[in-house]
Specification:
With 128 residues, the chain is mainly alpha-helical. The protein is built from 6 helices and no strands.
């Protein structure tokens, strides 16, 4: 199997599985899956039906079908470019150089993380 296809299938399987794991009821899980598919928020159902019936959105483009916010898809495209084409943290660690500016930057990040340790959030498995 192609590695990109295998990655895509695994990623989507894990995301969909977590929805059912975290949902309190079946209907809640279906609402979340519907939202993940774009039927409530990013693309409205009317635009999706028009696209499926006609094969196009007519005079509209995909950005004009978003419910009042044309930035959502643009942010997703930019985020995808960052994720797929820029270096990840492991690549940065392999090329890390120890000099004064980097040391100060890492110290600042560490200090920030330590200062935020007292902010408590809800325990992930609280309901189990």
């Amino acid at each position: 199997m192609n590695s990109i296809l295998a990655w895509f299938i695994t990623f989507n399987f894990v995301n969909i599985s977590w929805v059912f794991f975290r949902a309190k009821e079946w209907d809640d899980a279906l609402k979340v899956l519907k939202g993940m598919a774009g039927f409530s928020g990013v693309l409205n159902e009317y635009a999706f039906k028009q696209y499926m019936l006609n094969g196009s959105l007519g005079s509209k483009n995909i950005f004009s079908t978003i419910n009042g916010d044309s930035y959502t898809i643009k942010y997703l495209i930019v985020a995808s470019i960052i994720v797929f084409f820029l270096k990840n943290s492991n690549e940065y660690i392999n090329n890390m150089k120890f000099n004064l500016p980097n040391l100060l930057f890492y110290a600042l990040i560490t200090l920030t993380a330590i200062l935020y340790l007292n902010n408590m959030g809800e325990f992930l498995y609280f309901n189990f």
